[in-house]
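so the lab meeting is tmrw and i was supposed to have these ready like two days ago... anyway. pasting both below. for each one the top line is the aa sequence and the line under it is the structure tokens. i havent really looked at them closely yet so no promises
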Amino acid sequence: MTIPEDLLQFIWKLRLFQTDQLKTVHGDPIHVVQVGEQNNNAGPDFLFSKIRIGTVEWTGSVEIHMRASDWFSHGHHRDPQYHNVILHVVWDDDQDVYYKDGSLIPTFKLANYVSEKLLDQYQRLMEGQRWIPCENQLHQLDAFKIEHWIDRMAIERMEEKSQAILVLLEQFDGDWEKTFIVWLFRSFGFKVNAKAFEALGEQVSTLLVQKYRRDALKIEAMIFGQAGLLNTNFNEEYPLKLQQEYNYLKNAHDLKETHFPLLFSRMRPHNFPTIRLAQLANLLQHDRMHLQEILKIEKLNDFRVLMDQIQVATYWKTHFNFGKQSSLISNHRLSTVSQNIVIINAFIVFTFSYGTYMGLEEFKEKAMYWLEELPAENNNIIDKFEQMGVSCLHAAHSQGLLHIKNRYCDFKQCLSCGIGLELLKR
């Protein structure tokens, strides 16, 4: 079995080795007073470690390698950052290692003090071809510990999404209103058209949205036109009016169209990007669609009220795309499920992000509280976890589970996962 270096670091960090009667490879007794602080930057793996070797207590760094000879192959003998290493922790002591002055660096062979049970458990996690690495072991864990990790992952998912928003904020020179509009567009693109809608949001002027808020035709023309959906010959009155209005706006304000294609394939007609853009255009006409108004909201139900007020133009009640009348008649109201997705991805995430940037914990807490008020999302990943006995009581849980699957399980990051940690400690 190949032992990766990150597993050795994991074992050292959590003291998952026999802790008494330790010795260096040359027989000197060792007592690990403090394993140190893991260093994720350049330099030794652990800093501020305290190790008693013989009768002398040393403070310094600990470096960890699979093989002792890696000290030389990694060039540490030439790097001043490693001159204060007080212990070299290795799995295979294939070579003595020396300080610059020629004295021997104390070496500790970790392989002599790690249980086979831990290695077997790690091997099962890494080599299994199951949906998640711990699928067959998950039932061994206390439900409270699993829920605690899911809660932590819900916060981490919010933090990760917040970083994407803060990248946009920097791109728009600190303009929160523009950043909000772009993120709202992205959220209305849902999973399939998120990137295309984000690109469209970048093209749409927040100033023009405010200027024409009371003029539904202009808002719709601007959005559909800049999405590139009005560059064709129409016979119906509504798209002709949109096209005429957009040509005026385009010349008056030097509008640019996005060249990011919208996707219609393998999608139910109710989810077509044309319908989503019509819904978004109507939402933007609402008086509360200013960031400062959104940030004043305290009750989750206020977002529901906003979503319930969305009404598309009459044309869309008999159409799913331009120029193609449908026998189906629909008011194209956002379903409760779709509302929840927009509330989570647009409003809750943005509130959390604003709190993160401004250092306002009350905004972050409010966002997480709203997540716990919403029902859990319903998708294949959540269904699979529930089949495995993992409870999913609300949207914070479903967000946490999605994050675990997408960021940890899919990449077998068991050494960074709280569930993996508990299994390896057993």
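ok protien two:
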Amino acid sequence: MSTDLSKTPDTTTGTTTEASISGAEIVLDEVVKQYPGQKVPAVQSLSLTIPAGEIVMFIGPSGCGKTTSLKMINRLIEPTSGTIRIGGDDVAKQSDNELRRQIGYVIQGGSLFPHMTVAKNIAIVPKMLGWKRQRIDERIDELLDLVSLDPGKYRDRYPRELSGGQQQRVGVARGLAADPPVILMDEPFGAVDPITRQRLQDELLSIQRELRKTIVCVTHDIDEAVKLGDRILILQEGAKIAQYDSPEVVLGAPANEFVEDFVGSGSSLKQLSLTRVRDVDLIHPTTATVGESVAEVKRRAEANGDTSVIILDQRGRPRGWPWLRQLKGDTVVEPTEDLVDVDLASTLNDALDTMLSSSHGGAIVTGDRDQYVGVVNFDAVTDHIRAIEEKARD
């Protein structure tokens, strides 16, 4: 199933609520880019509509024009001809600065200014827009919290003091700083390790559930396109559209042999790529909050038949998954382990990868603002896939 961002999961009841769209529709009409001395245009008459509030992934071989097409939206590259409209307004009729202040831009590595603190990096566009100091400070803290970085811990750090994943989170926060309707992302997670990449993808999906921006993202990875995209745009040389459709259709009904080269997996594997964690039944093992009595937590876990417990902080975010024998002292303290969890919108592929690295045979699932939702285990995944295969045979 493709990511349905029109509804936001309620992590306390399991229901969904409508989320308001803050993004704007983007329309490209016969857009051409031909560089001087070039016989064939880099982009040839590209026409498509990107619906407001959706994530659209641009993918294709190197040199197909996907990055050029992305950069023409905010006129980092000027189109040779054609029209681009955002929310009905022709971008060619706006000044460069006016346009780019209304469009967030996130690239690989975050592209932070090394001589500026995290807070100053995020504040760049709001300052240019003349925001008052208090409003900027409040926005910095809000965004750091949104990308799961503690404002008190990170706002005064410099980029060199951050990991690659943390720098990318700050880059996303900076792109969101002025609350633009459109976010452009160029290979944003390409320079980090696979585990960090999964976390950042999950973070983006969680943020999008809450904000409903229009996000256009260039990637070279079909798995990333399937996971993040409401729609996938597959481009051939010259930015000719090979297929523009939902992940289900792209994987299940490739338009031609060119698109098939990006797919090539069996039906069960396709389902693992399309099915989200939120589509399977979660289990709910014993949880404990930092500061609780260890004796009471152990009593509760043993009564439930659990040999481990999930530790939550005061905001309901998972911080560790220790075995009962590891709980020491009078009260529960916050674990220092590097906990790997998955988002409700993660694919079952992601969930299985996380389970394989866990000694518990499951993966902790989080929702909005990284709040704990439950646990997905092997049985739930295999039962779901079996049910899909049985339905397909009927």
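from a quick look at the 2nd one: Confidence is low (pLDDT under 50) at residues 1-18. The chain is about 35% helix and 20% strand. will dig more after coffe
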